[in-house]
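Open question from group meeting: does this chain pack into something compact, or does most of it stay loose? Before anyone orders reagents, we agreed to write out a predicted structure and look at it together. Recording both the input and the output here so the notebook holds the full record.
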Amino acid sequence: MKFPIFEAVMLVCFGMAWPVSILKSWRSRTNKGKSRFFMLIVFVGYLSGLVHKLWWQDKVDGVVWLYLLNAVMVAIDGVLYYRNTRFDKKEFRHEIPKE
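Structure tokens returned:
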């Protein structure tokens, strides 16, 4: 089996965006501009690619690690999404004028 170079390039290119997104989520402490549904779709896509590589191919290639790495990065961003939801709720409560 040949190494799927174009699949690997695609995963590297898509994967380059996740560290930036994680850093932005960490620093901003807000979910403004984030979509939980989008992250879920991407996460399911990476898991589907991983399952396909592990169960439906005769020989597992190195691209499996790229699928796994990308899925982990999306999961980290998802955890930060829920952390930031708490920060957003606290900020919203502070903005409500008390009478």
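Observations to bring back to the group:
DSSP finds four helices and no strands in the chain.
The two ends are 70 Å apart (CA to CA).
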